[in-house]
């Protein structure tokens, strides 16, 4: 009886040793060279930022109001300087998304910039490229979200006229 008791543990130990040798001799999996598709970019996607506000068309000859209030938005952060062109997009009032109407370019005449620790509002009259009419606009800066604040990024997408992701 004693020889069979000793033989079983030896067989089990021998099988375990063979298994360890097989695992040790097998090629080790290499680190993944290419990251998964969603991580292929080394950069993070740009954070949503824009200027959003209102505008009224002005008659080029008389300076009188020619339109009702329009909701306007820029994409990104334009440079607010006299003579520097800025592209504006109309927002659809019903959906809040960027309208299918074509964008238009304005050239600010004398932008007034407002600060509360940082630039956060601009208003100006501006020439509209391709027409004698002018526009008066007032826009608030929608600042980019900080890392780790997805609710702010979702708000920015809405405020800038983009659909939900």
Describe the structure.
By secondary structure, the protein is α+β, with helices and mostly antiparallel strands. The protein folds into two domains: 2-29; 50-159, no CATH class. The chain has two helices and seven strands, in the order H-E-E-E-E-E-E-E-H. The chain has helices spanning 2-25, 150-159; strands at 50-58, 70-73, 86-90, 104-108, 112-115, 119-128, 134-142. The protein has a six-stranded antiparallel beta barrel. It is globular and about 50 Å long. The chain starts with a helix and ends in a 6-residue tail after the last helix. The model is unreliable at 11-41 (pLDDT under 50).
Helix content: 10-25%
Which of globular, elongated, flat, extended, rod-shaped describes the shape?
Answer: globular
pLDDT averaged residue by residue = 80
Helical/strand content category: alpha+beta
Specify Rg, calculated over alpha carbons.
32 Å
Number of helices: 2
Give the amount of beta strand, in percent.
25-35%
The number of strands is 7
pLDDT under 50 segments (min length 5)? Answer: 11-41
Straight-line N-to-C gap = 73 Å
Largest sheet: 6 strands, antiparallel, barrel
Oligomer: single chain
Domain count: the total is 2
Give, in order, the helices and strands.
HEEEEEEEH
For the largest beta sheet, what order do the strands appear in spatially? 1-2-3-4-6-7
């Amino acid at each position: 009886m004693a020889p069979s008791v000793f033989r079983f543990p030896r067989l089990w130990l021998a099988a375990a040793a063979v298994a360890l040798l097989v695992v040790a001799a097998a090629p080790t999996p290499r680190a993944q060279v290419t990251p998964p598709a969603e991580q292929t970019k080394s950069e993070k996607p740009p954070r949503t930022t824009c200027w959003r506000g209102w505008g009224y068309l002005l008659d080029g000859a008389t300076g009188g109001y020619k339109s009702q209030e329009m909701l306007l938005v820029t994409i990104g952060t334009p440079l607010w300087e006299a003579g520097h062109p800025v592209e504006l997009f109309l927002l659809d009032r019903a959906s809040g998304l960027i309208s299918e109407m074509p964008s238009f370019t304005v050239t600010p005449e004398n932008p007034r910039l407002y600060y509360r620790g940082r630039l956060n509002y601009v208003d100006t009259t501006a020439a509209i490229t391709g027409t004698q009419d002018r526009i008066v606009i007032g826009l608030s800066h929608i600042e980019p979200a900080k890392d780790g604040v997805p609710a702010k990024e979702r708000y920015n997408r809405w405020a800038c006229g983009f659909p939900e992701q």
